Amino acid sequence: MEALLTAIVVWLSANYDLPASFEHPRIEFASAKVMSSRFYENIARQEHAGIVLNQPEVDVVSLYGTETKTIYLLEGWRGKTPGELSMLVHEMVHHLQNVGQLKFACAQEREKLAYKAQDGWLGLFGSDLMREFQIDPFSLLVKTNCFY
């Protein structure tokens, strides 16, 4: 996992102007129930909420805990597909934003780069957010902009 995280940091810093930090986050796997609970805790603290799919039968699939510097992945995650790896890329953006002490007007604003990098990663494998996660441009607009 350390080598994979290092490769992702290098790719993100080279392609998305993020600070390269090799202080890797902890990785934990959690049940859907725990992920959902952490998701709503993050919303209450106005932190990064996580990747929530546009499918009613699927809940939160990944999260980043700012205070604990931990990436939470849904139990069963194996990192064997570009889609699964893109979840890790998305959360690594949040980790680099956190350790780089980057500031944002709202929690949604930090999502812009995370989704852009995730889509860029998927593009390396001939896919995109719509094909892998059914995340359409309008949903991205809502998930990545401050509306206050």
Describe this structure in words.
With 148 residues, the protein is α+β, with helices and mostly antiparallel strands. It has one domain: Orthogonal Bundle (Arc Repressor Mutant, subunit A), CATH 1.10.10. 48% of the residues lie in helices and 12% in strands. The protein is built from six helices and four strands. It has helices at residues 2-16, 32-44, 82-99, 111-123, 129-133, 137-143, and strands at residues 26-30, 51-52, 60-65, 70-74. A hairpin with a 4-residue loop joins strand 3 and strand 4. It is globular and about 40 Å long. The relative contact order is 0.17. Residues 53-58 have low confidence and may be disordered.
CATH class categorisation: Mainly Alpha
Please count the helical segments: 6
Helix content: 40-55%
Overall radius of gyration? 14 Å
Number of domains: 1
> Which strand-content bin applies to the residues?
5-15%
- Contiguous low-pLDDT stretches (5 residues minimum) are 53-58
Termini separation comes to: 39 Å
Q: Looking at the structure, what is the overall shape?
A: globular
CATH architecture assignment: Orthogonal Bundle
Give helix and strand order, one letter per element, not per position: HEHEEEHHHH
| CATH fold field value | Arc Repressor Mutant, subunit A
The biggest sheet amounts to: 4 strands, mixed
Output the structural class. alpha+beta
Mean pLDDT: 88
- Give the strand line-up of the largest sheet: 1-4-3-2
Number of strands: 4
